[in-house]
Amino acid sequence: FAQKIPEKPKVLYPVYDEVGLLTQTEKDQLNQKLIKFSDSTSTEIEVIIIPTTGGEDVNYLATMYGQKWGIGQKGIDNGIVFLIATEDHTMAIQQGRAVEQYLTASVAGQILDYIVTPNFKQGLWFEGVNRGTSALMEAVQGKFKPIAKPTQKEGLSPIQLMMIVFFV
After folding, report:
1. Element (H, E) at 45
2. Residue 57 contacts residue 26 (beta carbons within 8 Å)
3. For residue 152, pLDDT beyond 80
4. What are the Cα distances from residue 135, in Å, to 63, 99, 145, 147, 148?
5. Phi and psi angles of residue 118, each rounded to the nearest 5 degrees, phi first
6. What's the pTM?
């Protein structure tokens, strides 16, 4: 396909940052967190940061990386690929069959929409990746609560107020 997936690095850390989005300290912190998680749950989470998908569908590309690089344990299919293409402003989370029951497509979508994207929009790359991976870890352990619509405590959003005014 269009974008050739590079050969798997000889030493593959959980964070593969081709574009230098994260500092070394940030990568070290994430790597430690994800390695510890993999050791305790056997689920491998791989964060792959590339410049562009080269016109390829981001979900397809994430799946291909997972397959070619063998993310997850052999025969168990318990890997998760969190792919970010910085220049395309696009990202995807693809999971192996073994984790799908906990990390559904809907949960993955919520993690991207409600946790990762708001941080990325503010240029908080590390925050987005860090909180996103924490949410993935919670999901795999069955601890992630689907994000309901904002609670009433926060009051009404301007859009909700406008709609109410409009309907009245």
Report:
1. strand 44-50
2. no
3. no
4. 20, 14, 9, 11, 15
5. -60, -35
6. 0.85
